Amino acid sequence: MEDLKAALRDRCLTVASLPEKGRSLLAATDFHPGQVILSQEPYVFAPNAAEPRCDGCFATSARLRKCSACQAVWYCGSSCQKSEWKMHRLECMALARLDKEKRKSVTPSIRLMIKLYIRRKLQDEKIISTTAMDNYSLVDALVSHMSEINEKQLVLYAQMANLINIILQWPEINIKEVAENFSKLSCNAHTICDSELRPLGTGLYPVISIINHSCLPNAVLLFEGRTAVVRAVQHIPQGSEVLISYIETAGSTTTRLKSLREQYHFACACPRCAKLGQPDDIKESAILEGYRCEDDRCSGFLLRDSEKQGFVCQQCGRVRKKEEIRGIASEIKLMSERTSSSTSPSQAVSIYKMIENLQGKLYHPSSIILLQTREKILKATLMDLQDWKEALVYCKLTIPVYERVYPGYHPLLGLQYYTSGKLEWLLDDTGNAIKSLTKAVDILRVTHGTNTEFVRELVMKLEEARAEASHNLSCADE
Ligand SMILES: C[S@@+](CC[C@H](N)C(=O)[O-])C[C@H]1O[C@@H](n2cnc3c(N)ncnc32)[C@H](O)[C@@H]1O
Predict the structure, then answer these.
(1) Measured in angstroms, how far is the CA atom of residue 148 from the centroid of ligand 1?
(2) I need a labelling partner for 105 at 20 to 30 A (CA). Which of 226, 318, 404, 433 fits?
(3) pTM of the entire structure?
């Protein structure tokens, strides 16, 4: 702990123990928006299982090759394979012993745990070096919340711990400790995403895990490759706590509190959650997750009437009967079931549009439920159908909701402006592309940093768009 404190002091950070939160990371100097507060390599990490990914760099490509010995892990080339070999050697022997059926049960969480024990062993044997920010005692210090976990979850962790024992076959393995470590992963591991926030894998970053949560955070955690980087998104005065968000903050207070309680076992008391039940919070929740007024021209939000027969618009007083709401909700449910069986992107888009139409009748125009459907249509039209015009329409529909639900420097807001700018440029609307890309740069240079390849590319696009605009202007003058 003393080593860690010294390493953090060098980075102008301190650790304090707060009665209601446990360990907390404090700023020992002022941090300003865009400034890196802390970065860390993962103690262990594993790629997602959705599609084959390189075990070193998470790349997906046609050139990926399976490790010939264990047939369970992929590499993009010899460089990644070599760099991971110290860690993979023992894992490879263990996985190679498994029959085909058992190998299927080696999920990313199981791999993360196998790697955790292998790294501890290799560090104990001094095959891998340790530092103040890279040693197993940091994993030991993580919270596990074992006493708050329900019976069903405990049984699951015990079964997973047994599987680790079968796979590793190390006499020193302590099943109870492995089960507790699974619980630690659940409330401390982070999803590793690319610059566009697409999930790539999971990693355990035991120093970053000291940072507590707020639904109104002053810092953001993003990844450069597999390196976790925490940047300030607000001015953080010396002595204040550094806070990131563990969850999607766009939900209502009740939804946020529920997911924090279920996964992280605490009752959030951040400034947003402290407003639970106050008139502003009731209104905000009704807009984000509640119903719209029957009258298309009215932008009021609805609350349940006192007899619980329906929902009353708080602006014009119109009532929507609960039977009518139930009817639309069940149509949406039926339609949603059809999305999983849709056979082509265009079929998926047309089903999502029918859902959007029904949700438009049901939910408030600024609802995040409607937003999520529009996001799906945008991604599907953009990625698969390359219908840029339609994609831009959906992108523009989502931006005002993003602006409403997120603070100024939020990566998702910046990324949405980036998408809008790229689409406008593709559609030869250079003037608007410049406006959108400028907004994207303003946000993403803070959340993603100015020195990242991603932001450099964005800045280059903006410069190209500006050059094109001034060229067009001079041609018009001639
Ligand atoms: C990733 S850890 C953060 C560091 C932790 N405080 C510690 O002592 O190691 C997550 C856990 O910290 C606690 N925590 C995080 N944010 C909190 C908050 N805003 N209020 C209360 N507890 C919090 C919860 O126990 C949660 O499960």
Answers:
(1) 14
(2) 226
(3) 0.95
